[in-house]
Amino acid sequence: MIAQTIQLALAPVFVLVAIGNIMNILSTRLGRIVDRSRFLTDRHAETQGADHDHVVREMRSLDQRIQLVGRAILSLVLGGLVTGLVVAMLFVEEFLGIDIQRLAAGAFILAISLLMWALLLFLRETRMASAILRIPEHFMEWERKL
């Protein structure tokens, strides 16, 4: 019986591994965003006119990206906690002989939903990063044959 519970607990454990990997990616992105915001904070006082406007626009974007990554990390942490709770429920059910399969299934659905929400926030943040980092057309020199 315990062997079946361990086998049943493997799927949530794989979800925990995925959550950990995604959190690693997000924390790396957050570090880069913070580094860029510090650089722009230093440049803020040194710029004027159009350059200053560009710095402010990018700082606003970075602030939004920090919020998105923060929410994604929160969602992943909550999803990880709920996933751990699912594993605990499976063993409690086995050891105490009580039927909490529906509760465990609901918790697992919640955990997967939190993971999916975090992935959507991650997608939004990466699209925002791509939009702000687009190369301006005048640098492309499309009229030149290379």
Description:
The longest helix has 48 residues, at 49-96. Helix 1 runs antiparallel to helix 2, helix 1 packs parallel to helix 3 (101-132) and helix 2 (49-96) runs antiparallel to helix 3 (101-132). The chain is built from four helices and no strands. It starts with a helix and ends in a 6-residue tail after the last helix. The protein has one domain (2-133). It is elongated, with a radius of gyration of 22 Å. The protein is an all-alpha fold and 146 residues long.
Helix content: over 70%
Domains (count)? 1
Biggest beta sheet attributes = none
Poorly predicted segments:
none
Strand content: under 5%
Number of helices: 4
Number of strands: 0
| Assembly state | single chain
Class computed from helices, strands and strand pairing: mainly alpha
Span between termini? 69 Å
Task: Give the mean pLDDT.
Answer: 92
Secondary-structure element string: HHHH
Gyration radius (Cα, Å) is: 22 Å
Molecular shape: elongated
Task: Indicate the topology.
Elements: H1 2-44, H2 49-96, H3 101-132, H4 137-140
Helix pairs in contact: 1-2, 1-3, 2-3
